[in-house]
């Protein structure tokens, strides 16, 4: 088996999480500047076997797309051209940032650490990936 890589796409920063090779455990990998995301992914897949990219799909409360969806769709087109051999699946990412922030509080992180938006993005990607894994095993 190979890894599943989750992407919490952001205008400035993108959080990335990945599974182990057995696709059991989701772990935060890193946060990268969004303008460096494609080159990061190309480099990563040259070193690690990846079966699937999971990309968060931000939705409004009424189920309509959020304004950042336009940027994500443009990125997905570039990703499909750059790494066509790895399929992409979209995952509803509503509330992941709030859940990530709560996870930081519950984990006892100090207020200064919780202001680290890059860490919030990485935890959000991990939550997206963990929820996908959970739903696969139901």
From TrEMBL:
GO CC, alphabetical: cytosol
Q: What is its main location?
A: cytoplasm
Kindly list the organism's lineage.
Bacteria, Pseudomonadati, Bacteroidota, Flavobacteriia, Flavobacteriales
Q: Where is the YqgF/RNase H-like domain?
A: 2-100
Organism of origin is: Polaribacter aestuariivivens
Record-level GO BP terms: rRNA 5'-end processing
What NCBIfam families does this protein map onto? RNAse_H_YqgF
List the protein's name. Answer: Putative pre-16S rRNA nuclease
Entry GO MF terms? hydrolase activity, acting on ester bonds; nuclease activity
SUPFAM superfamilies documented for this protein: Ribonuclease H-like
Name any one Pfam family assigned in the record: RuvX
